[in-house]
């Protein structure tokens, strides 16, 4: 279950989200952010730091959310099959992008 502290954090996050209260601001681009960890990731993008490296390919990411989404490409089912190439994709948008590049 969710602990009372997690419930409070979640409630605070929801309140901030709807009230547009984003207390963390980047000193480089002035973007306002909801969480401190979002600010840290934003700062890494400015400094060029890329801490998230995929062990299955040569891709690297500055944001954990992008890295996590990328990892899914290695583990997910790939139901979107290309009829012209021997390729399959986990998301239809990847298949569409391939066809747009042709």
TrEMBL record:
Family annotation (SMART domains): ZnF_C2H2 (SM00355)
Keyword Cell division among UniProt keywords: no
Swiss-Prot/TrEMBL keywords: Metal-binding, Repeat, Zinc, Zinc-finger
Domain C2H2-type residues, every copy: 24-51, 52-79
Family annotation (SUPFAM superfamilies): beta-beta-alpha zinc fingers
Keyword Metal-binding: yes
Single annotated GO MF: zinc ion binding
Name of the protein this chain belongs to: C2H2-type domain-containing protein
């Amino acid at each position: 279950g969710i602990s009372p502290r997690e419930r409070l954090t979640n409630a605070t996050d929801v309140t901030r989200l709807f009230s547009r209260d984003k207390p963390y601001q980047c000193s480089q681009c002035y973007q306002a952010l909801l969480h401190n960890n979002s600010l840290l990731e934003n700062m890494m993008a400015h400094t060029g730091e890329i801490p998230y490296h995929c062990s299955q390919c040569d891709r690297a990411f500055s944001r954990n959310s992008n890295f996590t989404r990328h990892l899914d490409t290695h583990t997910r089912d790939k139901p979107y099959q290309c009829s012209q190439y021997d390729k399959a994709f986990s998301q239809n948008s990847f298949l569409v992008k391939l066809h747009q590049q042709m």
